[in-house]
Amino acid sequence: MMPPIVRLLAKRLGTSLIVLVGVSMLIFAIARIIPGDPARIALGPNATAEQITMLRERLHLDDSIAVQYGYFVRDLLRGDLGISLYTNRPVTADIAQFLPATLELIVVAGLMMILIGLPLGIISARYRGSWADNLIRLLTLLGVSAPSFVWAVILMLLFAFFLPLFPIAGRITDSYTIEPVTGFLFIDTLLAGNLSAFADAAWHIVLPAFALALSGIGQAARLTRSNMVETYDKPYIEMAQSYGFPEGKIAWRFAFRPSLIPSLTIIGLDFAAMLGNAFLVEAVFAWPGLSRYGVAVILRKDLNAIVGTVLIISAMFLIVNIVVDLLIAFINPRIRYSQRAT
Amino acid sequence: MTAPTLLIRDLYLAFRGWAGQIDVLHGISLHINKGERVALVGESGSGKSVTARIILGLLQQTRSARVSGLVAFEGRALAKLTEAERHRLRGNRISMIFQDPMSSLNPVYRIGEQFHEVLKRAEPRIAPAAAREKAAAALADVAIPDPNRALDSYAFQLSGGMNQRVMIAMALANEPSLLIADEPGTALDVTVQAQTLELMRDLVAKHHTSVLFISHNLGVVREFADRVYVIYKGRIVEHGRTADLFADPRHPYTRALLAAVPRITGEGVPEIDDVSEDYFQPLVVHEGCAEPEVTG
């Protein structure tokens, strides 16, 4: 008999695989149905008819979509996503280059959502009605109501231009040369033992990550607050108060944990949605990430790159969801134990 | 003569809201002697539960609440204590049992963890192992068959009756001198409620714990309480020993309350007035039940 948490994991992985296959079919078909001839776009206005025919043949563009999908799956199983018509390199190489930058950005933004958003929500609920609560509610409303690229521009103006506390753009100062091993600057600088480069990379990521995280911080804080306010009316909180449990403990443990479940779900969704939202922030901060790459290849109708990028983003989305599901099962014993019955 | 465990004299409570002031308690007085079980009986909204919240000092923290009058615990007026001193009483010298045991225990923490937290109120530095031992003993006292299993469970894994026993064990674990039972077990089956009430009665008798028993269920009150206060719309209307009051209800509201209990013999639901001028008649006190002198 498998432990319930393993069963849950196996079930989620299975359904995720099905979703991934569905997404690949869908994006594969959509990319080919939208108008425009990829071969013509790739070769430019001066290409001859023969050149275009040759490229179309190489890309199997004259076969039916089903047959093309067959070729795609065959290559995919060999770990080959095809050649990008935009960069003229294997799509896998492009993704390996651009994905780490975006992942780094998103992970830092996600941490900000959790480490800033949740405590703000808890403080707001614990001291509800006070000036601190009102201030937090106002600030988080601002965070939710403006899109992240607006914040990117504002933050850049305020803290990189008028008040040059942070670098204005890029991932790291050019004077550092770091051997790319994993592509993750935080890991590579540590592998190189270069702590000042690590600090420099961390310095560079603060503004873009914060701009990206702001709406998530706002959502997490507001949701945590409203859930906790509701939890505060539950008999078990009254019981905790009548037994004189320390107020801080009631807020940070007894009221927070039951209220955390919806917040976690939202953070998980935000986290995955950031993969797409990162584009404008990456554009503002000249961040060499996957979202920018994804938009560039869509504009060029670079079929292989579009499918590859979307597949990677979907896989990320699914992984984040699995992690969130496991976390919720860990926090909520009712879910954890109900797995046994199924 | 020692001071009564609880003495309430002329307690007023009002809530100040957008629509002006709403009076909830109109100067109630009651007392509970050491080891005595006293019931406060009335319909919902009569001010029973707010009285309990005031005794615990919780309602005083609500900004919209206006509380005046004397509440003295073991001869010391709560209003004269510091907030820290009042806080020290909670869960330690005064504890409380709630209406619905299922929702009064935190759903995401094991019983053992919550019990540990309760025991910390008396012994802040109690080690987890010692706490567990104490908790297991307390659960055994309330006739829970496998205390260690119960401690490792979550509230939703136990039955309502089990949870109620856990609540009783928690309430008595720190040997409080006053136990407030706010409609205990109203959410439970009648048979389970009867069992747990009997258990509670035996335990408080053993520990000489004074009890304020808040209820609308006259049948239960008759079995459980030594003395009864009947409360109607924030006023005490009748007060007497349980036997006297049930044998000879003198206030019109008490009589209506007694008449309102549906008979098991099947005479249908009795008809009584919702509101009657008679219900506002002055307080009736039975023989030998005068409120004690306030000293100090």
TrEMBL record, chain B:
CDD domains: ABC_NikE_OppD_transporters
Keyword terms, alphabetized: ATP-binding, Cell membrane, Membrane, Nucleotide-binding, Transport
Keyword Lyase applies: no
Domain ABC transporter: residue ranges: 6-258
GO biological process, one term: peptide transport
PROSITE patterns per record: ABC_TRANSPORTER_2 (PS50893)
InterPro entries, per database record: AAA+_ATPase, ABC_Ni/Peptide_Import, ABC_transporter-like_ATP-bd, Oligopep_ABC_C, P-loop_NTPase
Membrane topology per record: Peripheral membrane protein
SMART domains, per database record: AAA (SM00382)
Gene3D superfamilies: P-loop containing nucleotide triphosphate hydrolases
Protein localization: Cell inner membrane
Domain of life: Bacteria
Listed GO CC annotations: plasma membrane
GO molecular function terms listed in the Swiss-Prot or TrEMBL record: ATP binding; ATP hydrolysis activity
Family of the protein in this entry: Belongs to the ABC transporter superfamily.
Name by which UniProt lists this protein: ABC transporter ATP-binding protein
UniProt organism field: Allomesorhizobium camelthorni
Lineage: Bacteria, Pseudomonadati, Pseudomonadota, Alphaproteobacteria, Hyphomicrobiales
